[in-house]
Amino acid sequence: MASKITILLPILTALYLLPTTAVSRDTNAHTDSGPLDCTNRWIYIRQLPSRFNLDLLTSCSNYYPLYDDFCPYIANHGLGQATHNRSKSWFRTDPHMLEVSFHRRILEYPCLTSVPETADAIFIPYYAGIDALRYLYGSDVNSSSEHGLNLFNYMQTNEPEIWGRNLGHDHFLVMARSAWDFSQAADADPPIWGTSFLELPQFYNVTALTLESRAWSWQEQAIPHPTSFHPSTLALLESWVLRVRRSHRSTLMLFAGGGGTSTTPNIRRSIRETCLNDTRISDVTGRFQRLCEIVDCSNGACEHDPIRYMKPMLHATFCLQPPGDTPARRSTFDGILAGCIPVFFEDQSARIQYRWHLPSKEFEEFSVTIPKEDVVYRGLSIVDVLMRIPRGEVRRMRERVMELIPRVIYRKHGSSLGLRARKDAFDVAIEGTLKRIHSRLRER
Ligand SMILES: *[C@@H]1O[C@H](CO)[C@@H](O)[C@H](O)[C@H]1NC(C)=O
Ligand SMILES: *[C@@H]1O[C@H](CO)[C@@H](O)[C@H](O)[C@H]1NC(C)=O
Ligand SMILES: *[C@@H]1O[C@H](CO)[C@@H](O)[C@H](O)[C@H]1NC(C)=O
Ligand SMILES: *[C@@H]1O[C@H](CO)[C@@H](O)[C@H](O)[C@H]1NC(C)=O
Predict the structure, then answer these.
(1) Which residue's CA is minimally distant from atom 1 of ligand 3?
(2) Ligand 4 within 6 A of 296 CB?
């Protein structure tokens, strides 16, 4: 209990002390690249009672053991605790805390307005995924189809004109889980899995930023799972990229994950078999010391321990990213951060989902796709496919992967101006959201 309070108190006070509508329209923030143009970029943060966000953090140990005690991961505004005492950029980040860290980041967004009528977009600072825990793992499981109604009613009864101006088409929020967790049919009886937030007509017009989207979605857009790397200066980012560039890639391919032990044919099982078989075979070309490495992440072993997988990823040329319980995986972004070329086995794993952050037109330039059916049912060898890619091509792909690093990481709040001039995952998400909202409003 004591430790929980020591972690929470500084966060809560820090958030409260920050002005929530920091900048008004006529006090443009300046960066070193000159005055900032906020045209079409104004964001208003809706004022919500703390029961919709900060208060929810106090329930961080309520769902244990059904759900991990997430109190430690709230530290540093949702980035988690530093991996070790002297670590500046590495944290034990839990991706579900993105709602907290995104909230913190938007407070320093340079084009905030305190006048909702002049805003291009309205941010709802609701911790949707954290609130969902009481429906997923808590006592409200039988009312999971009502998730979101309190919020909607609040927005209809308090300053309803903010919603009314564009009927919610200009509103957006972060839901730091897979969209599947919020897509239970509203009439599911008994409840199956998930809440019905994204199925409620009340929220059809709102843009939700999720960690994964459904195959045919128009409400949500997937944004990168946060990695554990959150630099605060350009120098810290650049020295990491330099380390990635210089890293000796002695392993052909790596899989960091769990599963693959079932007896029914599936891609994870094929990968597991290949790796267990092929590590015994030496590479005749002499390019690699080993062909395959598995980092065993079963039972959440890797979740808050980035050293476990980042080091091996730095030494691998390709990182295998098969679908898991859901089509995408966090490890895709960890791998990119390590300069490890992603290998996908279906388009839903990344190409379709992360269009804003991983440009789909250039997808082949930084990744390899091997259809999983060819591997599982037609005996195509992953090793053969990857070994056939010429060295020069591999080098070019890795360069492209390294160019993606700044876009897929979430930098630390309060970063230096130099680093702020580089677009990170947050900036790209905001840019995409604004574009999407503008096109929605034009259509109306
Ligand atoms: C980290 O810092 C804490 C508190 O300052 C200290 O108790 C702990 O021993 C340090 N750990 C290491 C590994 O230095
Ligand atoms: C939910 O409903 C089922 C069936 O009516 C019941 O058995 C269960 O106890 C309820 N769960 C809770 C947490 O109320
Ligand atoms: C969503 O937008 C449509 C038309 O654009 C409108 O008819 C509907 O009432 C809106 N929904 C809500 C809950 O405001
Ligand atoms: C792995 O080795 C076993 C036994 O030698 C063999 O039956 C199996 O087909 C191999 N699997 C792969 C994917 O190479």
Answers:
(1) 205
(2) no
Q: What is the mean pLDDT of each run of 10 residues along the chain (444 residues)?
A: 48 49 41 74 98 97 94 98 95 98 98 97 98 96 96 98 98 98 90 94 97 91 98 98 97 91 89 77 74 92 95 98 92 98 96 95 97 96 94 97 98 97 97 97 89
Q: Compute the distance between CA of residue 122 and CA of residue 167 in angstroms, rounded to an integer.
A: 11
Ligand nearest to the CA of 274: 4
Cα-to-centroid distance, 241 and ligand 4 (Å): 38
Structural domain range at position 400: 234-408
Same domain, residue pair 173 and 64? yes
Residue 351 sits in the same domain as residue 398 = yes
Domains identified in the chain, total number:
2
How far does residue 85's CA lie from ligand 1's centre (Å)? 6
* DSSP letter for each residue of 341-384: EEEESSGGGTTTT-TTTS-GGGHHHH-EE--HHHHHTT---HHH
Closest ligand to residue 200's CA? 3
User: What CATH number is given to the structural domain containing 264?
Assistant: 3.40.50
Same domain, 246 and 355: yes
CB 403, CB 372: distance < 8 Å: no
pTM of the shown model: 0.91
